[in-house]
UniProtKB/TrEMBL annotation:
Superkingdom as given in the UniProt entry: Eukaryota
Single GO term (MF): RNA binding
SUPFAM superfamilies, A to Z: TPR-like
A biological process from GO: rRNA processing
InterPro entries noted in UniProt: Rrp5, TPR-like_helical_dom_sf
Protein name: Programmed cell death protein, putative
PANTHER family on file: PROGRAMMED CELL DEATH PROTEIN 11 PRE-RRNA PROCESSING PROTEIN RRP5 (PTHR23270), PROTEIN RRP5 HOMOLOG (PTHR23270:SF10)
Record-level GO cellular component terms: small-subunit processome
Amino acid sequence: MKLEEKLNIWKALMQLEANHGDEKSLKKVYNEVLEVCDRKKIMLHIIHIYKEKKEVEEKIFRIIFKKVKGSCKVYKKYCNFIMRNNREEENKNTISKAKTTLDKKKMISLEIHIARLEYKYGSLIKEDQCLKIF
């Protein structure tokens, strides 16, 4: 069986535990899967599972940033979280943190992603500020 297939099976098991089990059973499966699969992929999936619980999702992001350094994908997911929860002002802090850990190519990719999010969720620049620019 390929690694990707194993990962998908573990993700499905975690999703089942999240939907039909309790926190204890999910944590048990989560700890088991961390031993055999890529940590970053599993942590990003657990964020997907807790998408509706903002506090838990934010806590997981703090853990991911400590465990996985220099991942553009993690920064992109965090920016999605920020914009989804109307906390646009945190994007500036996120960008400054990302500049210290990401290389130039990944940083450009992150900035493009943030621009797309601003278009999707609303721009950080207010209408009055736009008028001052022109």
